[in-house]
Design a protein that fits this description.
- By secondary structure, the protein is of the alpha/beta class.
- It has two domains: 5-99, no CATH class; 104-254, NAD(P)-binding Rossmann-like Domain (Rossmann fold, 3-Layer(aba) Sandwich), CATH 3.40.50.720.
- It has helices at residues 5-17, 54-67, 114-123, 176-187, 202-214, 219-223, 238-254, 261-265, 267-271, and strands spanning 22-30, 39-43, 46-49, 74-85, 88-99, 104-108, 127-132, 148-151, 167-171, 195-198, 225-226.
- The strands form two sheets. The protein has a six-stranded parallel β-sheet with strand order 8-7-6-9-10-11, sandwiched between helices. Strands 3-2-1-5-4 form a five-stranded antiparallel β-sheet.
- A hairpin with a 2-residue loop joins strand 4 (74-85) and strand 5 (88-99).
């Protein structure tokens, strides 16, 4: 099926209205001139159109998830793709675009840590939602940086919050039982959030995991929960703890080392006659 630019644009708008992530592609250069201008889109497991070769379609589909960071909602790039045309290796240049909703940070619990965490999430360009069962805590006045503040029932905490793989859920609730109710539902989702973090002491985290194990969750299931969440910065205040959580989210996506840059670069030692010069 040959797709027009108008049909692709209409599908992008439809995906965005549904909160879906969609990739579009168009061939901009190829030895086979008939392929230039061929268009294709991919959203989840669905795709339409063709770039002119099933082998090229497959190569692009396999590559796009790794070409755009999960936390990004917009992006564009051109790349040469090599594919097989019978016995020949052929190269085509493809222009790719990512269209998607902003990455979302869902903070469960509206206590002291949630306030600076919501601010930092907003500063990172994320859509921030705060959930709590206490109306006096879950208020827009308390969270001016949040896009959504919702009063929930912890017996079904995500009833009104559809979650997906691009979401970041941070559990900063006031009790072990609330953490547990949230984790059970998150881990049983068909497509759970890509980032699940839970704050808490070693004892609280261990108790939660022991309860999950009794319910039949595997160590692989529990390994998807980043608990205790955050980098070891030594901070103690709500703002310092929020910074450590935000820093871990950046590390999770950007793939850094987490070590101080002064130790990584070692400028004095390398260039001014110190050890290892």
């Amino acid at each position: 099926m040959r797709l027009s630019a108008a049909r692709v644009a209409a599908r992008v708008l439809e995906a965005l209205e549904k909160g879906e992530r969609i990739y579009t592609a168009v061939v901009v250069d190829s030895a086979d001139r008939s392929m230039i201008g061929r268009r294709w889109w991919l959203s989840g497991r669905r795709n339409r159109g063709t770039l002119g070769s099933p082998a090229l379609d497959a190569a692009v589909a396999a590559a796009v998830p790794s070409l755009f960071p999960p936390r990004e909602s917009r992006g564009a790039l051109s790349r040469d793709f090599e594919y097989r045309d019978g016995e020949r290796a052929v190269t085509a240049r493809v222009y790719l675009e990512l269209h998607g909703p902003p990455a979302r940070m869902v903070i469960v619990g509206a206590g002291h840590i949630a306030i600076p965490l919501a601010r930092l999430g907003s500063m990172l360009g994320m859509r921030v939602e705060v959930l709590d069962d206490r109306p006096e805590f879950a208020s827009a006045d308390r969270f001016p940086d949040a896009d959504v503040v919702r009063v929930i029932d912890f017996r079904d905490p995500f009833a009104a919050t559809a979650l997906g793989p691009s979401d970041h859920v941070i559990l900063v609730t006031r009790g072990h039982s609330f953490d547990y109710e949230c984790l059970v539902r998150l881990l049983r989702m068909e497509a759970p959030p890509g980032y699940i973090g839970m704050i808490g002491s070693r004892r609280r985290v261990r108790a939660t995991h022991e309860q999950l194990a009794r319910e039949g969750f595997t160590t692989e299931d529990m390994g998807r929960v980043r608990a205790p969440v955050g980098l070891d910065l030594g901070g103690q205040t709500p703002a310092e703890i929020a910074v450590s959580v935000a820093a871990e989210i950046i590390l999770f996506h950007a793939g850094g080392t987490g070590m101080p840059l002064v130790e990584k670069e070692r400028v004095v030692e390398r260039f001014f006659g110190g050890e290892g010069a």
